[in-house]
Amino acid sequence: MPSTTDPRTKDDLSQAGESASSADTAHGGARDHVPAGWVQRDTENGARHLDATPDDGGVDHTPVRLIDPDGTRHEVPELDRWLDDVDDAAMLGLYTDMVAARRIDTEATALQRQGQLGLWPPMLGQEAAQIGSSRALREDDFVFSSYREQGVAYVRGIAPTDLLRVWRGAAPSGWDPYEYRMAPMQVIIGAQTLHAVGYAVGLLLETATAGSGAHGGIGVSRPDSDGPDAPERTSATISYFGDGATSQGDVHEAMTFASTWSAPTVFFCQNNQWAISEPVDLQSKVPLVERARGYGMPGVRVDGNDVLAVLAVTREALHRARAGLGPTFIEAVTYRMGPHTTADDPTRYRDRSDLEEWSGRDPIARLAAHLRDRGVLDDDAEAAAQQTADEVAATMRAGVYAVADPDWSTVFDHVYAEPHAVLDAERDAYGRYLAGFADNDTQEAAR
Fold first, then answer.
1. Which of 1, 61, 206, 233 would be 215's cystine partner, CB 3.0–4.6 Å?
2. What are the residue boundaries of the Dehydrogenase E1 component domain, all occurrences included (predicted)?
3. What HEC string does the chain produce?
């Protein structure tokens, strides 16, 4: 993991690269840069790119889109240039990933209802946002997620059973974060954005320490272009969070720090319209993408149910980050079709008409319609994707049943680095408490 304890100041770091001339060049230059592809441009289908600064007539906040809900595909050069390698086979792979992610979600929900999990946060309706963005990542990028990114975890290669260990209460984290380049899920709302930015700044420090190595230093000259051919200097981080998290101070601090340091990170906000029971219009008076302007970073609003558009904008944002152009804020407009968690009853606070409207924008049905129009998806291909998803779900269910309950004493492990008298006393007291139940059971059996 890159060090984040480097004692040098930003001014010191600005001298690490041979081309550095000032601290502003080193860590703040991207603040004044307007990258190509992010300025507002009209397209034939009415989609527009958003710059960090609106024109005098205001900004059209229509989410950018490539595929309509009925499957119609539009050409948008600013997005399509990031999809040159996405052929029919790749799109079929995206479809299969989304089907599998939904199947994992429905199976986990069933497992919770059957008493196998303590809780589960469904992601129904958000498959395109998660699969499209995670497929844009390189293997060496690092993910910092909330508790709802099971689709992202699936793409990163994490076994669904390992994901469910946490929700079963059998492990604090079910996977090695360094093996999969994905940190344990974060339950504290918005805290993962701080972790993502801290790691990203660590990447800058690591690059600066390398001096004039392959990537150069933190103060290297800015690239002449931010297009696909611009050289990439580091890996990147991405943080996933919801619309409700944007009201948390941690997110504000993370975005401020990321912008001033031009950290190689992407803020990926899944605006699913609800922060538990609070609608998004009570979270923000303006579209969330407008927040980016205040932090001096580019922002883009994308149709979060269009997997191709999400893939394109996330690829561009990650490329900007790796090329030394700083952070980007992405607002993926989607909808949480299920409850906040399995402990929630959304019928108490939202209208059924909203569900009916958003059902017509289903991300899987949208891509399926497009692929059928292209002759890529037929009944056999659809059945094959479903079979893959069913096999993943069956393996997950069997794995959950096989997960052993941890010994009760492990809850006291790793609380302190060194032995602690108070913790030892608490462990002993809890052991006596549990032993009391065993004594009662013995007495009952003897009667």
1. 233
2. 98-390
3. CCCCCCCCCHHHHCCCCCCCCCHHHHHHHHHHCCCCCCCCCECCCCCECCCCCCCCCCCCCCCECCECCCCCECCCHHHHCCCCCCCHHHHHHHHHHHHHHHHHHHHHHHHHHCCCCCCCCCCCCCHHHHHHHHCCCCCCCEEECCCCCHHHHHHCCCCHHHHHHHHHCCCCCCCCHHHHCECCCCCCCCHHHHHHHHHHHHHHHHHHHHCCCCCCCCCCCCCCCCCCCCCCCCCCEEEEEEHHHHHCHHHHHHHHHHHHHCCCEEEEEEECCEECCEEHHHCCCCCHHHHHHHHCCCEEEEECCCHHHHHHHHHHHHHHHHCCCCCEEEEEECCCCCCCCCCCCHHHCCCHHHHHHHHCCCHHHHHHHHHHHCCCCCHHHHHHHHHHHHHHHHHHHHHHHHCCCCCHHHHHCCCCCCCCHHHHHHHHHHHHHHHHHHHHHHHHHHC
pLDDT, position 365? 98
Please tell me the least confidently modeled range out of 71-80, 83-92, 276-285, 434-443.
434-443
349 part of the active site: yes
Catalytic residue among 8, 113, 178, 349: 349
pLDDT tens across 329-385, in order?
999 999 999 999 999 999 999 999 999 999 999 999 999 999 999 999 999 999 999
For 402, residues 6+ apart whose C-beta sits below 8 A from its C-beta are none
Phi-psi group of 211: left, alpha or beta (phi > 0 → left; psi -120 to 50 → alpha; rest → beta)? left
One-letter identity of residue 6: D
pLDDT in tens, 165-180: 999 999 888 899 999 9
Mean pLDDT, the chain, as a whole number? 87
Q: How far apart are CA 304 and CA 433, in angstroms?
A: 50
To the query of whether residue 348 is one of the catalytic residues in this protein, the response is: no
What predicted TM-score, i.e. pTM, was given to this entire model?
A: 0.82
Residue 34 has pLDDT above 70, yes or no: no
Q: Which of 103, 135, 340, 397 is catalytic?
A: 340
336 flagged as catalytic: yes
pLDDT of residue 15 exceeding 50: no
Residue 220, pLDDT above cutoff 60: no
